Amino acid sequence: MIDTDLLSRKGLVKELAQGIRSMETAHRPQGLLVSSGSEQMDRCLPSGGYAAGSLLELTCNPRQRTSGWGGLSLALKMARPWLNDGKYLVMVDSYRRLCAPSLVAMKIPLERLIVIRTDNASDWVWGLDQALRSPAVGALISPVTELDDRSARRLQLAVEQGGGLGIFLRDQVSAKRNPSWAEVQWQVQSVSNPSSSASSPYASPLKKPSVMMERWFDLELLRAPGRQSSRRVRLGIDAQGEWIECDERKSPQSAQHLASQLAIAAPGRRDLAAG
To answer: What is the pLDDT along the chain (275 residues), one digit of tens a residue?
Structure first.
């Protein structure tokens, strides 16, 4: 027998959630979505792309922070479609580790790159706020460690006004302890590829910069508007900075692994700050 009261309550909860979501996003450009460029990634996203005026988080294991935060190559790849129409990419590089050759390999136009270097948390928040509010900025990439609720909300309002995409690189511990207002969150795991080595666009100034090589990642979608279950995908980035969709030739065991994981998809954790 169908429980009509239960269905009615579910419908009411859904309607209230949609109303809250509409109020939270009232100041952002409506209906504008930008594809990641990867069909597999877009299929994981309920909207099929990333919304203009929104924040995105890439989280990784703290041990991967020493290798370029794990998700920096992904962040650059996601940011590239937002640089059309002459818009700019803003990157935070407080430790002066940006490597220009690797950025060029990722097809980032250096003439449209703005670098921010800050010495303290208040300057960092102010710099991000100003950059995200500017309609000339298509995308912003910044590592994030500590983030209080007030600053998190401030940055969300800023990106909604500017209409670009803010990409935060975080470790999993910090992201759980100090959640942001990012509406999409991916958990990123760098995958070893014995046939190739990888370099990071954040390189040591004492070492000779090397060109980006092939890299592979396992991604799990932890948060997204309307997400009902966790979604996983394996993606690569080749030496030319292009997406590599997962197949048996590139990763023999990944197709079977992903199929089994998707078949047993379990509901993920929802942060209250996600809205």
So the answer is: 556 666 566 556 545 544 444 545 555 566 689 999 999 999 999 889 999 999 999 999 876 554 445 589 999 999 999 999 899 999 999 888 888 998 999 999 999 999 999 989 999 999 999 999 999 999 999 999 889 999 999 999 999 999 999 999 999 998 999 999 999 999 999 887 645 444 445 544 444 444 567 889 999 999 998 876 779 999 999 988 999 997 644 443 444 444 444 343 333 333 433 33
3-state secondary structure at position 147: coil
**Would 89 be classed as within a structural domain?**
yes
**In terms of DSSP bridges, do strands 88-92 and 243-245 run parallel, antiparallel, or are they unpaired?**
unpaired
Identify whether 156 is part of a domain: yes
Q: What is the CATH number of the domain that holds 101?
A: 3.40.50.300
Task: Tell me the residue ranges of DSSP E strands in 157-237.
Answer: 165-171, 184-191, 215-223, 231-237
Domain interval for residue 136: 26-268
Note whether residue 17 is domain-resident. no
185 domain-assigned: yes
Residue ranges in the chain assigned as alpha helix (H): 4-24, 39-44, 72-79, 100-105, 121-133, 149-162, 172-177, 254-263
Residues 6 or more apart whose CB falls under 8 angstroms from that of 157 comprise: 27
Residue 205 amino acid letter = P
Pairing of strands 137-143, 184-191: unpaired
- What global pTM score does this model have? 0.75
Number of domains making up the chain: 1
